[in-house]
Amino acid sequence: MAAASLQEGLALGKSLADEAAALRAASSGDRVIAAALNALPDGAFDRKGLPTRLALERRFDRAVAEARKAAMVPQDGGVMGHLMGSFFSGLLMGSGAGSASASNGGSVSGGGQGGKDTNGEEGASTPSLGARAAAAAAALSSGAVATGDGSAQGVMSAVGEQNSDLSRSAQHVMHCLDRAEAALAAGDMSGAASALGHVDGYAGSQVEGVRAAFLERLRAEQGARLVRAHVRVLTASMY
Asked: Which pLDDT score, from 0 to 100, does residue 205 have?
């Protein structure tokens, strides 16, 4: 009963202090149960307990949105770089690029790195929206389009003159974030945490907190499952 309460409390985001104390008392020093309880993260015994999966998913959505903005910010881009990062990440999300990638197993279609376009053709000659947006952010933040009429043609002309390093970096981040979103949508929090671990740079700093929270919860869920399975074995051996 106490083992089931442990899992239930974890699912509801409650403190597990009382359930753990009841299990320790009932198990009479069982080493497996003691080890499993000792392995639970400290946050599980706090007054508020660990965040629920739903709460973590909402936190994930916010962190990913910020990471997409950060991916578009050139190094030393300053205030203008941040503004352009927000603008172009909004352009990407508004276009449904992330959802399209997720539905295709997390791959980035139409990528400039030899990716495939929607017709299956080699897309090396056609940069993806992520690449174009990242390069545009670099162009605008560096003042490359300070002259001219500021038209879309002028922006894209300046984009073509930018170094492609930011584009490649942004595409890598977007790909990792797409993979994380697809994994979490499928209920695979471990896979989402793994994908987030490959997001580097400034964008990585935006998701490191939620990734740590994912890993903490996964550790707690594994410990709770171990306790319940061990209790079932002990109970079955009594009959």
From this structure: 95
Tokens of 8: 């239930």
**Positive or negative torsion for Cα 112, 113, 116, 118:** negative
Residue 228 CA to residue 166 CA, distance in Å, equals 49
Distance CA 133, CA 131 (A): 6
The whole-number pLDDT of residue 71 equals 86
The dihedral sign for the CA sequence 96, 97, 102, 103 = positive
Give Cβ neighbours of residue 92 (< 8 Å, ≥ 6 apart).
Answer: 68, 98, 129, 130, 133, 174
- The amino acid sitting at 40 is L
Tell me if residue 92 falls in helix, strand or coil.
helix
pLDDT beneath 50: ranges in the chain: 77-89, 91-92, 95-131, 140-152, 154-163
Q: Which residue has the tokens 């973590």?
A: 56
pLDDT at 234: 81
Write out the two tokens for 40. 């639970």
State the angle between helix axes of 78-94 and 53-71 in degrees (0 to 180), rounded to the nearest 10: 120
CB 176 within 8 A of CB 196: yes
Q: Is the dihedral of CA 215, 219, 222, 224 positive or negative?
A: negative
The total of other beta-carbon atoms located within 10 Å of residue 47's CB is 7
**Beta carbons of 59 and 212 less than 8 angstroms apart:** no
